[in-house]
Design goal:
Radius of gyration: 22 Å
Helix content: 10-25%
Strand order of the largest sheet: 8-9-14-15-12-13
Distance between the termini: 75 Å
Low-confidence stretches: 4-22, 109-116
Shape: globular
Number of strands: 18
Mean pLDDT: 81
Largest sheet: 6 strands, mixed
């Protein structure tokens, strides 16, 4: 009797394991090239479903990439400094590697100061040197950093959620729109370099599973306060929204304070 009960228990566990087994991941690989057929290095590639990121990666020095995702239909988005963002639909699995061709950006001449030659790949990270004349804010610069993807409410590296952001070695403990508002307050003339670390080392918290972004400023705030206030609006045929936001950055002695806030106002009339 005991042996029979054991066999029944073993069979139940086995069936439970089969039921919970995740779908087999499909490999999506390929090559990103420019109009002349040259490989584009350090391009960011993401797979989206309903505008939610499902996977992501970065091309290597030859322009090649590979990632895994469940079978299904995705929107592929490819972005890289100096090129127009490319989008296409793909259905996994695919039988052959994909070839993605990027067109030069109409603003390429203005962006030459932050072209790929200003991106250095080290053993565990990408280092992006930023020119003070780039004319971009922090979110625009991050969106062009290898492997970084900015959504409406979060930042991820190569598809991994929970990315931590540090400015001058201090973690910015803001999330969602508040974090993006703060990053918009940083301009290219403020930022010296951006380091993208996909897999955080032991020196960072264990919950940094989504990697780490390190932003180094050209000059630290010394016993001072800076901030900004912005106002946006959203228009439709039935509703008008107002989108105020602001940020405050202060340094007093050894203390650094970063704060940001945003809201949506919808008038009754």
């Amino acid at each position: 009797m005991k042996r029979l009960l054991f066999l029944i228990f073993f069979a139940a566990v086995g069936l439970s394991g089969v039921a919970r087994r995740p779908a087999v991941a499909e490999v999506y690989s390929g090559h990103v090239a420019d109009g002349q057929g040259n490989g584009v290095e350090y391009a960011t590639i993401v797979l989206l479903q309903d505008e939610n990121q499902q996977a992501g990666t970065t091309t290597d020095e030859e322009g090649d990439f590979s990632m895994e995702a469940k079978a299904g239909t995705y929107k592929v988005v490819v972005q890289c400094i100096g090129y127009e963002t490319m989008e296409k639909n793909v259905h996994l699995p695919v039988s052959t590697p994909d070839t993605l061709v990027l067109k030069p950006s109409s603003y390429a001449l203005k962006e030459v100061v932050v072209q790929a030659k200003n991106i250095e790949r080290k053993a565990d990270r990408f280092v992006v040197s930023v020119s003070p004349t780039a004319g971009k804010d922090g979110t625009e610069l991050l969106s062009q950093a290898p492997g970084v993807w900015l959504a409406e409410d979060n930042i991820s590296i190569n598809g991994s959620q929970g990315t931590k952001v540090f400015v001058d070695d201090r973690e910015i403990r803001l999330t969602g729109e508040e974090l993006l508002t703060y990053l918009r307050s940083l301009k290219s003339e403020d930022i010296k370099r951006i380091e993208v670390i996909p897999i955080a080392g032991a020196e960072y918290e264990a919950n940094s599973r989504g990697g780490v972004i390190l932003i180094t400023l050209r000059q630290r705030i010394n016993n001072g306060i800076q901030g900004n206030i912005t106002m946006g609006t959203g228009l439709s045929s039935t509703l008008t929204n107002y989108l105020p936001s602001g940020s405050l950055n202060a340094r007093i002695g050894k203390w650094t304070v970063n704060a940001a806030a945003s809201t949506t106002l919808a008038p009754k009339k």
